[in-house]
Design goal:
By secondary structure, this protein is mostly helical. It has a domain of 115 residues. The protein is 51% helix and 2% strand. The chain has 3 helices and 2 strands, in the order H-H-E-E-H. Strands 1-2 form a two-stranded antiparallel sheet. Helix 1 packs across helix 2 and helix 1 crosses helix 3. The protein is rod-shaped. The relative contact order is 0.05.
């Protein structure tokens, strides 16, 4: 407050009609009677004892709450770790299911090396359902076989040459004596 400002304090008359002294209500006047002082001291001690008991109870609750928060933080950390491990396991299972389906489809189409189909096929359309069923693998492998037929085993004897027509059998009639022999 400024020095020039004045306060508008009004004195409230006491219930008996007297004006209370200045500063009344701020602190009670100390008792001068020893019995009243002893009673006041016991009352203060009881209030202090109750406050200390309440403070101890709150301190115990606070310690329990802090211990609970520490345990909660530890469990949250473990949960994050477990979720990450579960996601990794799910991704590994998905990858294994796709790999198996593609290799099976490639072997069915007679690929020279079914593992090539995994690296070369467009697997963006391959889906894995929640139950582990894989869809789209056969179509992706078929598209790869159509696009790159040299990945397939050659038809024939496996040596890259087509199969020969069976040799002609000699005639069933025996040759006449003195007839020339026919060479094949």
């Amino acid at each position: 407050m400024d020095e020039n400002e004045t306060t508008n304090e009004t004195e409230t008359p006491a219930p008996d009609g007297e004006t209370p002294p200045v500063g009344a209500g701020v602190t009670p006047a100390p008792a001068t009677d020893p019995a009243a002082m002893a009673a006041e001291l016991e009352k203060t001690r009881a209030a202090l004892k109750a406050a200390n008991a309440e403070s101890a109870a709150r301190r115990k609750k606070l310690e329990a709450f802090e211990a609970f928060n520490d345990e909660l933080d530890r469990v949250k950390g473990e949960l994050v770790t477990v979720k990450a491990e579960a996601e990794q396991a799910k991704a590994n299972a998905r990858s294994t299911a796709i790999r198996h389906a593609v290799e099976t489809a490639a072997a069915g189409l007679n690929f020279q090396d079914p593992a090539d189909a995994i690296t070369l096929a467009d697997l963006t359309t391959v889906q894995v359902a929640d139950n582990g069923a894989v869809t789209g693998a056969a179509e992706a492998v078929k598209a790869l076989a159509d696009k790159r037929p040299y990945l397939l085993k050659p038809s024939g004897d496996g040596l890259g040459t087509p199969k020969r027509a069976p040799a002609q059998k000699p005639p069933a009639q025996p040759a006449k004596p003195g007839a020339p022999l026919v060479r094949l």
